[in-house]
Amino acid sequence: MAIDTKNGSNGTAVHASLDFTTFRNIINGKLVSTTQTRHTPNPSTLEPNPEVPIATPQDVDDAVASARAAAKGWAATPLAERQKAVTDFAAALRDNADAFAQMLVREQGKPLAVAQDELNRAAQWLEVQARLPFPEEIVEDSAERVVKTRYVPVGVAVGIVPWNYPVMLACGKIAPALITGNALIVKPSPFTPYCNLKLVELAQAFFPSGVIQALSGDDNLGPWLTANEGVDKVSFTGSTATGKLVMQSCAKTLKRVTLELGGNDPAIIFPDVDIADTAAKTAQFAFLNSGQICVAIKRIYVHSSIYREFLEAFVAVTKSLQVGDGLSEGVFVGPVQNKMQYDRVRGFLDNIQATKATIAYGGATTDHGDAPAVQGLGKGYFVQPTVVDNPPDTSRIVVEEPFGPVVPLLKWDTEEEVIARANNSDAGLGASIWTKDLQCAERVAAQLQAGSVWVNSHLDLRPDATFAGHKKSGIGAEWGVEGLRSYCNPQTITLPKA
Ligand code: NAD
């Protein structure tokens, strides 16, 4: 599906249309090829996706130099103009949402409806952040003086994006970086480079050259960017293990760092819930995007008085979730995104079997030579949604984040006990409480160690609310006004009146 991007105010050689067959890096407003290329497989069919560039150290230096050159003029552009450019970019993204969603299914594996929802959210994350008020703060305004704190762009930022929600999470970085007057280099995951490259290609029509660039590469690229002296800030979304490496690397040049890392979200189910309704909702929040969401439900604590009934209802819903290629009608659970992650999820299933925990439903995967096949599925990285029946708290599926469609249900008896067990994790990203008693819900919410807590819902993220991980789920915050500030250095000016 071809659309017009035109040549923007930068007047550079950007493609006249987005064609989704050729993919190049975007450096200083130009589409740049590399000598070496690579591609990923479609995770449903294992058919090859198109070739993408492998950026070199020279490409990194070129992009950083262009970003440094562009950052000055962009910082001097009035806030309202920057906000308008981001809003116009969002409109173009909406105009092209169908083409992006099709590509997203082919590179990420998610069902088309989930891809369309991601595109809608991506545009929303641009639009809403572009409307957030971002005034200077007046600390004192007396007869003698004015003291005010303003927020100055850091300069050049790098956004490192994971493979689970590549478009939305990239837009979650593009919006605050550009609205606050920084230049940004987007680094997609090597597993999902396609939509991110097209996103930045599309953006060229709305921003001066060098303000937003994209580099796709192999595993060397992230470390090259985090080590580069010309980069002032890194906003990273990914695993906790990689987050530690990013922080180590950034420490050498004292870059500003925001880390959005892994989660192990508990959902606490009280005995007064509507069992069928709550089981249906929590199953969807556990298996959406094949469980590959940082804030998916990953541990479900169910009060012992309703445990059996809830488990049966949960299994019935899980059975009804259709597994398959994201482009097939009615599919809810697509493949796991890549072979590495598929093997990791298989490792959890092996561990569940080895420790003789009870699988209430599921456990099958695509046959890659040594596993039982999910009936009727193609060659891809499919894992049947799997429900584990009350495994020990010390088991791997409770302690670690599987990042796949496998979820344990666990029994609890007292409020104090379940709060302690929910908090007994290195992760502190999201959590939810399910009850009709809203006083109880608020009391429990206040005791949970998590950056986002929902009542009778989960995963209800908003671009205008601060999103931040507690404990090893992150450092700093994204989105909302806090997210805008995270791309700035505060500057307090004291001005005498006389
Ligand atoms: P990952 O850590 O493997 O990779 C994330 C990104 O970091 C990729 O772009 C990758 O190329 C890059 N990278 C890898 N090594 C690097 C290095 N040494 N230096 C710089 N960059 C490097 O994560 P993933 O597997 O893509 O994503 C899954 C994880 O991300 C899960 O743990 C999930 O919970 C987490 N996640 C967190 C959030 C959040 O907002 N908190 C959102 C989505 C995903």
TrEMBL record:
<comment type="similarity">
    <text>Belongs to the aldehyde dehydrogenase family.</text>
</comment>
<feature type="domain" description="Aldehyde dehydrogenase">
    <location>
        <begin position="36"/>
        <end position="493"/>
    </location>
</feature>
<dbReference type="InterPro" id="IPR016160">
    <property type="entry name" value="Ald_DH_CS_CYS"/>
</dbReference>
<dbReference type="InterPro" id="IPR015590">
    <property type="entry name" value="Aldehyde_DH_dom"/>
</dbReference>
<dbReference type="InterPro" id="IPR016163">
    <property type="entry name" value="Ald_DH_C"/>
</dbReference>
<dbReference type="InterPro" id="IPR016162">
    <property type="entry name" value="Ald_DH_N"/>
</dbReference>
<dbReference type="InterPro" id="IPR044086">
    <property type="entry name" value="LUC3-like"/>
</dbReference>
<dbReference type="GO" id="GO:0004029">
    <property type="term" value="F:aldehyde dehydrogenase (NAD+) activity"/>
</dbReference>
<dbReference type="Pfam" id="PF00171">
    <property type="entry name" value="Aldedh"/>
</dbReference>
<dbReference type="InterPro" id="IPR029510">
    <property type="entry name" value="Ald_DH_CS_GLU"/>
</dbReference>
<protein>
    <recommendedName>
        <fullName>aldehyde dehydrogenase (NAD(+))</fullName>
        <ecNumber>1.2.1.3</ecNumber>
    </recommendedName>
</protein>
<dbReference type="InterPro" id="IPR016161">
    <property type="entry name" value="Ald_DH/histidinol_DH"/>
</dbReference>
<feature type="active site">
    <location>
        <position position="260"/>
    </location>
</feature>
<keyword id="KW-0560">Oxidoreductase</keyword>
